[in-house]
Design a protein that fits this description.
The chain has 570 residues and is an alpha+beta fold. Among the domains are: 42-204, 2-Layer Sandwich (Beta-Lactamase), CATH 3.30.450.20; 342-399, no CATH class; 409-569, Alpha-Beta Plaits. Helix content is 55%, strand content 18%. It is built from 17 helices and 17 strands. The chain has helices spanning 2-11, 14-78, 82-89, 96-105, 138-145, 155-164, 197-206, 235-244, 284-287, 289-333, 350-399, 409-426, 440-447, 449-466, 490-506, 534-550, 565-569; strands spanning 109-116, 121-124, 148-150, 171-180, 186-195, 212-216, 222-224, 246-253, 256-264, 277-283, 430-437, 472-477, 480-486, 509-511, 514-516, 520-526, 556-558. A hairpin with a 2-residue loop joins β8 and β9. The two termini are 63 Å apart.
C-alpha cells in the first residue's frame, strides 16, 4: 500500500499534489463537521426516545406483574380455605368438583390440582394427570418448602398458538403452594397452571404508534412478540440489563436501527416476579430523519467548498511550483546538452533560493567525490582479490592433511555430517570404511620415518584413485584412513573395500632404492536406521577394523548392525 502511494506521488507534480491536498482537506473538514453534527443530533434524539421507550417497557412490565400478582394471591388464598384443608385431612379426591368449577370460572387457569406430599396427583381439574407421580418435578419439590413459581414454557406450542391467533390455553407458568391440614400438618401441594392469554392481550394493547412489545426470558429467549423477532438475545446483554432492572439499547432490525427500552418483571408487593424482561422497540428511521437531512446538507455544502478550494489551490500551486519546475528542467539538461554544467540562480522564495545555491555547491562536491570514489573502488577491488586468495589458502591449510594432501578429520566430519543429514531426510544410503596399514611400525623401524611417510602418502593416493568423485577420503592420524561412500549398499561397499585392499596389496612403493610393499586391514559399516549419528557409524566400522586385525590382517570385515535402542538401554 505504501509503495502504491509513493508511485502515485511520483507521477504527480507539486501543483497537482497541493491541489489534491487542499481538496482532501476541504472534504475532510466538511465530512467531519457533518458526522459531528449527525452524531450530536442522533445522541440527543436517542436520549429523548430512549426515555420514552423505558417508560413504555416499565408500564407493560408493571401491568403484567400486577396480573400475575392477582393470580398469585388468588391461588395462595385457596390454601387457607377450610373446605380444602378439611378435604386434604380426610379424602382429597373430593376436591375435584371444586377444581373443575374454579377452572371453568377463571379463564387464566389451565389446570388445578392437589398433590400429596408423596408426589402423587390426588385430585385435578378434569382428571388431568390424576394418579400420576410428579415427585421429580421442580415445582413440586419447591412447593413443599414454600410458595414456588415454575416458568419453563412450552415454546413450540406457544409459538403455534400465538401465530394461529387462536385462544388455545398454552400452559407455561405454574404456581405451587404448600397445603396444611386442619391439624397444621403438611398435607401436600396445591398447584395452578396459568396460560398466556391475558399476558398476550396486555402486550398487544401496549403496542401503538408502530412500537413493538416483546417478552424475553432470563436467558434472552423471546417468549412472546413479533414472529420475526423470535431470536435469542445475547445472554450477556440481558444479564447486564437485568442487573440494572431497566435500560435502553440500539439493535438492528429489518428496516434499520431500532431503539429498545428494557424493564425487568421483578414482581409487585409480596409477589416475587418471574424475572422476565419486557422490551419495547421503536424503528429509528423516523426518529433520525432530521439528523440524516442535516448530515447530507452539510456534506453538499462541503463538496461545493472543496471544488472552489481546488480551483484556488491550483492557481496558488502554479505560482509556487514555477521556479521548482525551472530548476528541474535545468538540472535535467546537465550532461545531456553541451555547455550545461551548472544550475541558474533562481528567485521566488527563500527556500527556492537556498535550494538552487545548495545544488550548485553540491555539483562541485559531487565531482570531487566521484574522483575519490573511483580511486577507493579500485583499491577495494584489489584488496578483495588479495583477501579471497588468502582465505582460500588458509581454508586449504585448515582442511587438508599436510602429508597426504587429503582431507583432515575436521573437514571429513563436516562432509560426513552433511551426508548423514541427507540420509535422514531422503533415505540415501551411506557407508564408511576405516583403513589401517598392517605392521606399519615395522616399516618405520626398518627403513625410517621418511619411508613411513612415503608409504602413507602412496596409500592415500591409491585409495583416492580407487574411489568415485562423490566419495571422500581423509587421514585420521598415523597410518589410519577413513572413507565416506555415498548411495551404496552394504554389498557394494564391501566390494569397493576389497578392491582397495587388492590394489594396495599388489602395489610396490619405491623408496631410496628399496621396493616396499604393505597390506591394509579394512572395517566396513553401512548405515542403518538405528545409527544415531555419523560418529556411531564410524565407530562400528572401527570395531570391524579390529575384527579384521584379529582375523589375520590384509582382509575386510563387515560391521554387524547396531542393537535397537531398547536393547542398548537395557
Amino acid at each position: 500500500m505504501r509503495g502504491k502511494l509513493w508511485a502515485l506521488e511520483d507521477r504527480l507534480s507539486v501543483r497537482e499534489q497541493i491541489a489534491l491536498a487542499t481538496a482532501g482537506l476541504c472534504l475532510f473538514v466538511s465530512f467531519a463537521i457533518a458526522f459531528g453534527a449527525a452524531y450530536v443530533g442522533r445522541e440527543e434524539a436517542t436520549r429523548l426516545i430512549s426515555r420514552e421507550m423505558i417508560q413504555v417497557s416499565e408500564t407493560a412490565a408493571d401491568r403484567m406483574d400486577r396480573h400475575f400478582q392477582n393470580i398469585y394471591h388468588r391461588v395462595r388464598s385457596y390454601t387457607t380455605f377450610d373446605l380444602i384443608r378439611a378435604a386434604v385431612s380426610t379424602d382429597a379426591t373430593k376436591l375435584r368438583p371444586n377444581f373443575d368449577r374454579l377452572n371453568a370460572s377463571f379463564p387464566d387457569y389451565n389446570w388445578l390440582a392437589f398433590v400429596s406430599k408423596e408426589g402423587v396427583v390426588v385430585a385435578a381439574s378434569e382428571g388431568h394427570r390424576q394418579g400420576e407421580s410428579v415427585a421429580h418435578e421442580g415445582w413440586f419439590l419447591r412447593g413443599l418448602q414454600g410458595p414456588a413459581i415454575e416458568d419453563s414454557p412450552d415454546l413450540v406450542a406457544l409459538t403455534a398458538a400465538v401465530a394461529s391467533g387462536t385462544e388455545i390455553p398454552v400452559s407455561f407458568v405454574k404456581f405451587a403452594f404448600p397445603v396444611f391440614s386442619l391439624s397444621n400438618e403438611l398435607a401436600g401441594v396445591l398447584v395452578a397452571s396459568i396460560h398466556w392469554g391475558e399476558i398476550e392481550e396486555i402486550r398487544r394493547a401496549m403496542e401503538s404508534n408502530g412500537d413493538q412489545i416483546i417478552v424475553v426470558s432470563r436467558s434472552g429467549e423471546v417468549l412472546l412478540g413479533s414472529r420475526a423477532l423470535r431470536t435469542h438475545y445475547p445472554s450477556a446483554q440481558i444479564e447486564s440489563l437485568r442487573r440494572s432492572h431497566h435500560g435502553v439499547f440500539v439493535d438492528r432490525g429489518p428496516g434499520g436501527d431500532v431503539l429498545s427500552g428494557y424493564a425487568l418483571m421483578d414482581g409487585h408487593r409480596d409477589y416475587p416476579g418471574m424475572g422476565w424482561g419486557v422490551i419495547a422497540r421503536r424503528n429509528g428511521e423516523v426518529a433520525f430523519s432530521a439528523t440524516y437531512q442535516m448530515f447530507w446538507m452539510i456534506v453538499g455544502i462541503g463538496t461545493v467548498v472543496a471544488v472552489l478550494g481546488i480551483l484556488l489551490a491550483g492557481a496558488i500551486a502554479n505560482r509556487i511550483s514555477g521556479p521548482i519546475q525551472e530548476l528541474t528542467d535545468a538540472a535535467d539538461r546537465i550532461g545531456r546538452e553541451n555547455g550545461a554544467m551548472s544550475l541558474p540562480r533562481l528567485r521566488g522564495s527563500s527556500e527556492v533560493i537556498h535550494l538552487s545555491t545548495s545544488l550548485r555547491s553540491l555539483l562541485l562536491r559531487i565531482g570531487f567525490v566521484e574522483r575519490m570514489t573511483q580511486e577507493a573502488e579500485a583499491k577495494a577491488a584489489e584488496d578483495a582479490r588479495k583477501f579471497a586468495s588468502d582465505i582460500a589458502s588458509l581454508r586449504k591449510l585448515a582442511e587438508t592433511d599436510p602429508l597426504t594432501n587429503l582431507m583432515n578429520r575436521r573437514a571429513f566430519m563436516d562432509a560426513a555430517a552433511d551426508a548423514m543429514r541427507y540420509y535422514q531426510r531422503y533415505s540415501r544410503a551411506i557407508a564408511t570404511l576405516v583403513v589401517d596399514i598392517d605392521h606399519f611400525k615395522h616399516v618405520n623401524d626398518r627403513h625410517g620415518h621418511a619411508a613411513g611417510d612415503a608409504v602413507i602418502r602412496r596409500i592415500g593416493e591409491l585409495i583416492a584413485q580407487t574411489l568415485r568423485e562423490t566419495d571422500k577420503v581423509a587421514r585420521f592420524g598415523g597410518e589410519e584412513f577413513v572413507v565416506l561412500l555415498r548411495e551404496v549398499t552394504e554389498r557394494e561397499a564391501h566390494e569397493l573395500a576389497e578392491r582397495i585392499r587388492f590394489v594396495i596389496a599388489e602395489s610396490i612403493i619405491p623408496f631410496d632404492g628399496n621396493q616396499l610393499s604393505v597390506t591394509v586391514s579394512i572395517g566396513c559399516a553401512a548405515i542403518t536406521s538405528h545409527d544415531r549419528d555419523v560418529e556411531e557409524l564410524i565407530e562400528r566400522a572401527d570395531r570391524a577394523l579390529y575384527a579384521a586385525k584379529a582375523g589375520g590382517r590384509n582382509c575386510v570385515r563387515l560391521a554387524p548392525p547396531p542393537a535397537p535402542p531398547k536393547v542398548r538401554a537395557a
